[in-house]
Amino acid sequence: MRRALGLFLFVVFITVWVPHPAFATKGADSWAEWDEAKSHFDSGRWSEALAGLLAHARPNDSSYYYNLGTTYYQLGNTGLAVANLEKANRIRPHHSDIQANLSLARQSLSQKIGSERLDPASSWVEQLADQVSFDEVRATLGFFTLALIMIWIRNYARTQQIKTVFFHPAAYLGTLALSITLAVYGIRLWANSHPCAILLEKQTIRSGPGDHFQLLEEAELGSKLRILGPLSSQEGADENWNQVRYSSEGIGWVKSKSLLIL
Questions:
Q1: What is the 3-state secondary structure (H, E, C) of 118-143?
Q2: Is residue 241 located within the same domain as residue 203?
Q3: Do 186 and 201 have their domain in common?
Q4: What is the pLDDT along the chain (262 residues), one digit of tens a residue?
């Protein structure tokens, strides 16, 4: 039993502490081609730094959103700081610099609008799922699957009996770890069906896709929402709308251009 427990703990240690190749990307604090923006930033000219970043946007780059969020924070716009740092954190989770600045921005924003308004729409399960990326879950799932197969092969090679393959303590622990990982993967898939988005501006949430519909709620810049459905637009109108969940039970519509999907 001790050997089985030791093997299980070794698997957990490797899974948690060995970095996965998916995260071997450029540092989040890299300014890449934004040399001029960095010069302004280092000199405390935040507005000029912001203009330089926006002029060379790089969607899906954690460095871009990290620098953008940090610059917004220096400008005192904590709502947009949270939005962009959340995006950076989603692209490159668990990076220490991103985590540190995001924590500061969240604290500052919560003092302005209240901590209960930062993420009023997500259930605790969705909040938990948001902390784990698909790459992490897939890597862990693959690792435990491989480890369990190796345990089965090893047990069969030693005993030549099918029964001992599946009823060995190490196999029990491996199956338990694999089952937990599969459950987390299922939760992550379920949460992804209602993706998280963050408001880039203060918005009025309405009962339908249009300004003429009833006002339901005033949502603050930097607040998180859950997207429920596809885009919708009125006939002859240029603006698109998304159906969103804005509280545990509240469902409404908000302009798509105001959302940054995480």
A1: CCCCCCHHHHHHHCCCHHHHHHHHHH
A2: yes
A3: no
A4: 445 444 444 444 444 333 332 222 344 445 566 788 888 888 888 899 999 899 888 888 888 999 999 999 999 999 999 999 999 998 888 888 999 999 999 999 999 999 888 988 888 877 777 776 666 666 776 776 777 677 667 766 777 766 666 666 666 676 777 777 777 777 777 777 788 899 999 999 999 998 889 999 999 999 999 998 777 665 555 688 999 999 988 999 999 999 999 8
Whether residue 181 contacts residue 140, with contact meaning beta carbons closer than 8 Å, is answered with yes
Tell me the sheet residues that pair with 227.
Answer: 244
Distance of alpha carbon 201 from alpha carbon 255, whole angstroms: 10
Q: What is the pTM of this model?
A: 0.71
Burial class (CB in 10 A: 0-12, 13-18, 19+), 38: middle
Domain enclosing residue 98, as ranges: 31-120
Task: Establish if 18 belongs to a structural domain.
Answer: no
